[in-house]
Amino acid sequence: MSLSTRRLLKVITSLRGVHEAPPTMSPAEVSRESSCDALGPRLIPSKNQQGLPSHGLAGLNRQAQRKISEERMRVATLIVGTMTGKGRELVDLGERRDIGVLCVQETRWKGNNTRELGEGCKLYCSGTNMEGRNGVGIILSKQLKENLIVVNRKNDRIMSLKLGLGATIANVVCCAYAPQTGFTEKEKDTFWEEMDQVLGIIPARERVIIGGDLNSHLGISREGIESALRLGCG
Question: Residue 186 and which of 18, 56, 57, 107 are 20 to 30 A apart at CA?
Answer without folding.
Answer: 107
